Amino acid sequence: MKQTVNQDYFNRKMFFRALPPILISYIGLAIADTADAIVVGQRLGVTGLAAISMALPVFMLINVVMHSYGMGGFIVYARLMGEGKQEKARQNFNGVLWHAMLVGVILAAAGNLFLDPLVMLLGVEGTSGTLYEVCSVYVRIIVTAIPAFIFSYVLNYYLCSDGKEKLASIGSTVGNLTDLFLNILLVLVLDGGAAGAAFSTVIGNLVAICIYLIGMRRNPGNLVFSLKNVWKFRAWHCFRLGFASSVQYIFSLIFVMSANRLLMKISGDSGVAVFDVIQNVSFLIQYLYDAAAKAAQPLVSTFRGERNYYGERRIFAWNLLSAVILGGFCITLIALFPQSMCVIFGIAGTEAAELGVYALRIYLIGGFLAGINLTLQKYCQACEREKPVFIMAILRGFIFLLPALFFFANLGIRAFWWLFAATEAMSLIVFLIFNAINRKKDSFDQDRVYSTTILGTVGNMTQLADEIEAFCEKWNAEMKQTYFIRMTLEEVCVTIMKHQDQNGYIQITLIADTDGVFELHIRDNAEKFNLLEMDTAKVSEEEYDMDAMGILVIKKRAREMQYRNYKGFNSLIIKI
């Protein structure tokens, strides 16, 4: 009798192996993103914070490019790897990376050529004196470094998708710590002002790139740089997939520019400074939700490529639970000590401090709801469902946000901060209704998928093999095909068991494709070994290896075989 085991074993392990390094990376990123505002606020006060806030739309434009290419690319890459299409995955990596770099070079050249109109477009007039000077210096350095930002972030996405979360985390964390250290040195110690803050950010990204490249040189895996046929790859498809959620940065750009102008009118520099504090606090909270989503997305895409729908749903459950716990803890901490945030950003003791405390506590209600919306949006994106992703983005960033901005601004500066909670609550309600009405069934019949997880013991194999045989007969497999599938499963699993300890688990997914091909996915927690590299030469000797003979037969009869060690587990794909 087949023993029942925790069917969530691999899903849980894979998610929580991916989460810690990505979480560390995103905490470092949050610190680095807020470092400019913190040190400039400490040195230049309210005027410095206002200048950094005015420059935020530039970062949002950069975010549109690097997150659209990076997120869309790494989702498609994970799916292709899950389907065993490694060559196409490599083409995806190079096509997306070099297309994104080309766009970055164009944006950098345009930004330098039209710098003065750009700064004025951000809402800073030439007559603004110090504010204009600080903002223009900061923006020039940032736009010049756009290609470096894009290269760093897109590469980080692909490292995470290829199972190199530790390398991605080390590079990102060291780069962000470099950014923080240089901010303190160049701005607070050497009084480098906005230029010092901008150079710190750029150098931090260059340090991260160097670490990524060194790590990839030692262990490239499937990520190998190449310019061969790079312009023939459909990078636009990946951009479009990522843009479905990254379009929110365009909406944020419009929102921030509009909010800054309104706040200058109703509250002056103080209102804009508090708004910058809110924006930076939102980064701290959002990055925690983002970290959980980034750990989950390649897994969702991988399981989707394997047609393992149970694993896909369970990854989402772990993602949501982790995001709520992490985000909720951060929100509670800030709600209890909002005065500390005012001290950190350099507005304590000013007329903006009291408003800052009040605004923070009101914002946090919307911050929690924003995390829930973000998690739902990222899950749909990992499933390559562009329509609901775009719907959520446009609800949060345009349809509800902009009307709420003008509505609450007319009610005064204290009512202004309720716009975030109102926007997120209405977006969540409408999205859930839309998703319920327009829920689209997967194009592939889930009944054509058999999936289970077993303990790695010979005693479990008989019932498993019988269930596999019944599944094959249900979907009209030929007798020879059924026999070969059963034989393959038994040979592979027995060989795996010899490399496992007493806590060995094996996950089996069998897909009856509509073209008559059966696709077998086998994942195990044995020590790392590539079953396809077994020495089958022993078969021709007098004392040959029986296991090697069985694997040789499978190699000759199978249409295709692929091996991958992913998240610490051996994964094998066999098409029969």
Give Rg in angstroms: 26 Å
Domains, number: 2
What's the SSE pattern?
A: HHHHHHHHHHHHHHHEHHEEHEE
Question: Biggest sheet, strands in spatial order?
Answer: 1-2-3-5-4
List the total number of helices.
18
* Low confidence ranges: none
Our estimate of the beta-strand percent is 5-15%
- Can you tell me the overall shape? elongated
In oligomeric terms, what are we looking at?
Answer: single chain
Distance between the termini: 27 Å
Determine the mean pLDDT. 83
Count of distinct strands: 5
- Characterize the main sheet: 5 strands, antiparallel
Helix-strand makeup class: alpha+beta
Helix content: over 70%
Could you walk me through the main structural features you see in this protein, from its secondary elements to its overall organization?
This protein is an alpha+beta fold and 576 residues long. It has two domains: 429 residues, no CATH class; 129 residues, Histidine kinase-like ATPase, C-terminal domain (Heat Shock Protein 90, 2-Layer Sandwich). Helices cover 72% and strands 6% of the residues. It has a five-stranded antiparallel beta sheet with strand order 1-2-3-5-4. β4 and β5 form a beta hairpin. It is elongated. The mean pLDDT is 83.
